[in-house]
Model the fold of this input.
Amino acid sequence: MQQLDRIALRGLRGFGRHGVLPSERANGQPFLVDVELGVDTRRAAKSDDLSDTVDYAGLADRVVALVEGEPVNLIETLAERIAAMCLEDPGVEQVQITVHKPEAPVSVAFEDVSVTIMRSRS
Done:
């Protein structure tokens, strides 16, 4: 990210039905999302007013709503939708999204499967 300040939300949890297998759609599974926003916080720091920055509580609600909403095949698609939603906030210039799928249907022992994307307004 460029010379922007950062606001981070880690481990947002939601239960979704994303995946290509019928069992993933039928049974669902937990997903975790990390969000890192590139923002300029100077105006908010000076005014001490929430309206001058990103309301991260509201953003967290919207991220979880996407996780728990319309199913998609790929976590890449889910990450892209979350990034686009974050960039709708005029205060967000850049975003990094990581979607974790800790119970992905993998036949060997593993800790996590994740996809990380970075998007910017420009």
Q: What stands out?
A: The radius of gyration is 16 Å. The longest strand covers residues 5-16. The CA atoms of residues 59 and 101 lie 20 Å apart.
